[in-house]
Design a protein that fits this description.
Blueprint lengths: L2 E12 L1 H9 L8 E7 L2 E7 L7 H6 L5 E9 L15 E4 L5 E9 L18 H20 L5 H16 L3 E7 L4 E4 L7 E5 L3 E5 L10 E2 L6 E4 L2 E5 L10 H8 L7
Antiparallel strand pairs: 1-4, 1-10, 2-3, 2-4, 5-6, 6-7, 7-8, 8-12, 9-10, 9-11, 12-13
Length: 259
């Protein structure tokens, strides 16, 4: 299982200590690391297909202050796709109105035929990259029909519906940034936490990154949208909790070296 990290804040926060702890977990998640930092509508993405703890570049990067309002980080333990740069999260794609979308996924798509057509389009082999293609494809179709960009409510409702469909029988923990809003979702128990700093900062992580008692489990089985460290929308409650350890074992022991 991969691990996710994210920050959504109204003010800039130095996140080096959180990232150092987060990336230290790469001893068990050694297929690659990534970091996307967001500056308004721009994104700076850094990733390597090596273990984070073994990256000389990342060590140097973390020696300098990373002060940011919004960011997503990821360490990868592969279930689908080999150890390659193009399979490292986060993934980035623009929609047809120029909005930049960034996605990181912790989980596995076991069965969802709607993603299959994107295999020939994607740069890597991961199901996670195909999720982003699927979202953008649906965003584009809606914008083509309306002949304008979707507003926030329209984007949220569309993603809420897509995530519910994707969740049936699949493991879906997601952090998505649309250049304005951070979307957060988890559908398997005890696998995504949130910490509140002050009144306007949220830190997200697969596991708590310090001993602070303020870490809480993210609301379960619904899409959440955050802006400036506050929830601005909650999706409909669904019943698509993932729990299938036998299937996890099957994928964990499958040979993907041919991909």
């Amino acid at each position: 299982m991969c691990e996710l990290f994210g920050i959504n804040s109204k003010t800039k926060v130095q996140i080096n200590d959180y990232l150092k702890t987060f990336y230290s977990h790469s001893e068990k998640h050694d297929y690659g690391w990534g970091l996307a930092c967001f500056y308004g509508e721009s994104v700076s993405i850094e990733k390597e297909a090596i273990k984070a703890n073994g990256s000389h570049y990342l060590k140097q990067r973390l020696r300098h202050p990373i002060v940011i309002q919004n960011a997503i980080a990821h360490i990868r333990l592969a279930t689908i796709g080999n150890m390659a740069y193009e399979n490292c999260h986060p993934f980035i794609k623009h929609d047809n109105m120029g909005r930049c979308w960034t996605l990181a996924h912790n989980g596995t798509i076991f069965d969802y035929n709607e993603l299959e057509k994107y295999r020939q389009m994607q740069e890597g082999q991961t199901d996670s990259e195909r999720i982003l293609y699927y979202i953008i494809d649906n965003i584009n179709a809606a914008q083509d029909m309306l002949q304008r960009p979707l507003n926030f409510d329209e984007r949220f409702d569309l993603i809420d519906n897509l995530v519910e469909l994707l969740s049936h029988g699949n493991k879906i923990n997601l952090l998505i940034w649309d250049s304005e809003i951070m979307y957060v979702h988890t559908n398997y128990a005890d696998s995504l936490y949130v910490k509140t700093l002050g009144d306007n900062t949220k830190i997200f992580s697969t596991v708590p990154l310090d001993t602070d008692k303020t870490w809480k489990l993210v609301d379960f089985l619904k899409l959440l949208a955050y802006q400036n460290g506050k929830i601005v929308a909650r999706g409909k409650k669904n019943t698509t909790e993932y729990y299938n350890p036998e299937r996890d074992w099957e994928y964990k022991n499958y040979d993907y070296s041919y991909l």
